[in-house]
């Protein structure tokens, strides 16, 4: 390992990994370093499967840290706009998060489609399933969309390439080997503690071994780079806020998405599961008219947990290619847009999560929908006899309404009621709500058309800086930045 690089990337999540991949392909000859606070992908295991309990892995959670970031344990649903298969001639499409509006500002429709198709091809090259969900049965999908529309619900139609949790792990393992074999330096178990910034220009990073990450006395070592790329993901959102404050990196207050993970029988969701695999539904229910959406739908899937540095436990979900449950899970998220003078959406989300974690003695809280409507908490006994058996065994029965605000809760319940008119049984009293599910990608860094922040030579890609909200767009942002940097 050297002490000076052309490009230092903080975080080896999909955004950083795809940046490195593309730099190799472009044959730039530049010296690249990825600094990753977690482990190699092959060393990442989550003990919860064996011991049925979150062991709060130290120094960092294996679900969210390590090579391929949150991608390794993700369900691996890739939005796949493969031109040869889909949407030829269409001029508008959903990209998710800010990336839609941001990338659309600087790239033409054709350039975006090419970028998406190229990135999709890289996933295929490393072994992604060639099968795309949601491209057959077009008539049925249109019928579903029309039915949803009647209830003021937008059902967004996107083809999905489903990697599956266990396959995503293997695929990223092959990419890791490819990067290492092709001269990319990767420091694992190494945390970037600080940025080296002089006269508004980044000069490098300060690193610590991850086991010393929280040791204030330990002296961090500087490594220098001509360009530094932030690819820290949602997990790095709090650290990024700290860096923004310390180094005056310009940011704008973005939304924070707060909600729950909903679990219900596959049988209820069978049409969407069958025809689309994932149905992304967006609505603005009254009286607040906030944006409420479903996200990360997992047919025959499993509800999962993820633990953040400050020990916050959040709920998520995934599904395997082979191991199946009989339940579908999906997130129902409410976008909270705060206005002046409040500008701390991450703190807000963390406080909600902290309260809910405390109510569950550090665990995810689960509650039946019917109990919420009846104004009572759920007890362990209720779950034993419940029609929907929770797939997250560590979740603790309780009352999430104590911690989610009135506005959030009302938005979610109104959304569920509208969904019930579209999908019969969606509001069945036995269905389960798990909380908290929060997406901390609200650090909206202000970027120029080269993804450069207000600090010279400091760039941001992926979810952490608020640019993207999912695997495909995070990966695309890495490819795009590599292309930009290679021309500099
Ligand atoms: C359980 C689960 C299921 C998901 N399912 C899907 C899905 O089906 N489809 C989809 O599109 N998306 C899904 N996602 C989201 C998806 O994984 C993310 O959108 C994607 O991984 C973002 O990529 P990224 O590179 O921006 O960040 P991340 O993947 O979060 O990677 C960031 C990396 O940076 C490292 N890092 C952070 N701070 C530092 C630091 N200071 N020093 C060193 N390293 C640091 C972290 O350890 C991490 O490895 C899921 C996520 C989870 C957790």
CATH superfamily heading of the largest domain: FAD/NAD(P)-binding domain
The residue ranges in which pLDDT falls below 50 over 5 or more consecutive positions are 82-92
Number of domains: 2
The count of strands amounts to 21
Biggest sheet: strands, sense, closure? 8 strands, mixed
Write out the strand line-up for the largest beta sheet, numbering strands in chain order.
4-12-13-16-11-19-17-18
Mean pLDDT metric: 89
Bin the helical content: 25-40%
End-to-end span in angstroms? 24 Å
Question: What does this molecule look like?
Answer:
By secondary structure, the chain is α+β, with helices and mostly antiparallel strands. The protein has 2 domains: 251 residues, FAD/NAD(P)-binding domain, CATH 3.50.50.60; 208 residues, no CATH class. Helices cover 31% and strands 24% of the residues. The chain has 13 helices and 21 strands. Strands 4-12-13-16-11-19-17-18 form an 8-stranded mixed beta sheet. Strands 1, 2, 6, 7, 8, 9 and 21 form a 7-stranded mixed beta sheet that branches. A hairpin with an 8-residue loop joins β12 and β13. The protein is globular and about 60 Å long. 52% of the residues are buried. About 2% of the residues have low confidence. It binds flavin-adenine dinucleotide (FAD). Flavin-adenine dinucleotide binds next to α1, β7, β14, β15 and α13. The site of flavin-adenine dinucleotide (FAD) has 44 residues, from α1, β7, β14, β15 and α13.
